[in-house]
Amino acid sequence: MALCCMPKTARVNSRKRASGESLMPQMEIEPSFIQDVRQLLRQARQQAYSAINSAMVEAYWQIGRRIVEEEQKGQERAGYGEGLIKELSKQLTAEFGKGFSLANLKNFRQFYLTFPEAEKGYAVRSQLTWTHLRLVMRVENPRARAYYLQETVAEKWSTRQLERNINTFYYERLLTSADKHAALVQQGEMEKETPRDFLKDPYVFEFLDIPEPYQASEKEIEAALIENLQAFLLELGKGFSFVGRQFRLSTETAHYYTDLVFYNYLLKCFVLFDLKTGALTPQDVGQMDMYVRMFDDLKRGTDDNPTIGVILCTEKSQTVVKYSVLSGSEQLFATKYRLYLPTEEELVAEIEREKQLIREQLRLQGEQAQ
Predict the structure, then answer these.
(1) 153, 134, 156, 136: which is closest to 145 by C-alpha?
(2) What is the mean pLDDT of the chain?
(3) Are 200 and 174 in contact (CB under 8 A)?
(4) Residues 114, 132: contact at Cβ < 8 Å?
(5) C-alpha 189, offset from chain centre
(6) Where is 173: in which H helix or E strand?
(7) What is the mean pLDDT of residues 78-93?
(8) Which pLDDT score is estimated for 125?
(9) If I label 142, which of 90, 148, 254, 357 is the partner at 20 to 30 A Cα–Cα?
(10) What number of other Cβ atoms are within 10 A of residue 47's Cβ?
């Protein structure tokens, strides 16, 4: 029979035979079944990757230990350590290929020296990649190193996020008061957290790419922060989720708008941010105080803690801080922000000034209590 005279079904089957396609009808498979199989494969691959990563990190630490031990044997010979690592790099590269350069072997050595036997276990078992660990090794302060290790695991920071946090002194900016040192560095023994523990001074918004000197208005900076919300949330820290921008608070006679509203699920409260492009003024403090009181009255849930208000300003008047409701308040705060990445010296100076201010506030509070 000519193909054109065949029934339609016969013609389709004939074409399938010619192309090698199966004549079996296509089976309908539940999407959930496919998803389950995919998830099993992803989990298996992740477990395999984690096992390989842990094994390699363990090997790097052991190599670093052997390098140090060998160097100590020949320590009376000048330049012995440098020559030892160069020769080791040459032989390992010839046998195992890339990954054993002079710089990498020096990193292995530093890995062992940074994390001695007592600390090595956590660094290896924490599922951090070698790139994470190389970044943490650059941090000289042991307490800061422990903090970055703990937070990277808990918050699942990428290597890019970790590097940014180290470069912007994330840990030091959290330590704006001397009385919370212990709460931040005692792993697994954290004291009850207060709102101050979640705020930095200064905040750094270099990810907005606004050139210096900047001409942007408050509205433009606010819009840029929302456009870069993921980076903004990372800079804010733990527990923040975005609620709204230009959030309206209405009374019988007027409407008021707070710039940015977040909810912190760790503090269990709303956090209001008001953005100012100039120095802190008494009017700014009064306005935020009103917003916080209104939010508590109109929006706060029965299970929520008191609302927190944060004024973000480019300069913070110590006189306004000292003689306003900001002094000693656990609900109102003023912090600086920078639109570009300061130098290390500038950040350290900023942090020291803030610590000195906090110490002075604590001293005055102590005198008033006596």
Answers:
(1) 136
(2) 79
(3) yes
(4) no
(5) 21
(6) helix 170-174
(7) 80
(8) 58
(9) 357
(10) 10
What radius of gyration, in Å, describes the C-alpha atoms of the chain? Answer: 29
Token pair recorded at residue 350? 């900023």
pLDDT in tens, 327-344: 777 788 888 888 877 676
What's the predicted TM-score (pTM) here? Answer: 0.65
Confidence at residue 23, expressed as pLDDT on a 0 to 100 scale: 54
Q: Yes or no: say if 111 and 133 are a contact pair by the CB < 8 Å rule.
A: yes
Confidence tier at 178 by pLDDT (50, 70, 90)? very low
CATH topology of domain 189-369: Trna Endonuclease; Chain: A, domain 1 (3.40.1350)
CA–CA distance, 235 with 244 (Å, rounded to integer): 17
By three-state DSSP, how is residue 5 classified?
Answer: helix
Q: What is the DSSP string of 329-370?
A: -SSEEEEEEESS---HHHHHHHHHHHHHHHHHHHHHHHHHH-
Residue 188's pLDDT is what?
42
- The more confident residue out of 295 and 28 is 295
CA distances (Å), origin 216, targets 16, 211, 253, 276, 280: 66, 9, 32, 11, 18
- The rounded distance, in Å, linking the Cα atoms of 196 and 308 is 10
- Is the CB of residue 206 less than 8 Å from the CB of residue 338? yes
Query: What pLDDT is attached to residue 77?
Result: 56
Measured between alpha carbons, how far is 56 from 183 in angstroms, rounded to an integer? 33
Q: Are 171 and 144 in contact (CB under 8 A)?
A: yes
Answer for the pair 352, 359: CB distance below 8 angstroms, yes or no: no
Amino acid at 315: E
| Kind plus residue range of the DSSP H or E element containing 313 | strand 308-313
DSSP state of 98: S
Residue 259's H or E segment, with its range, is strand 255-264
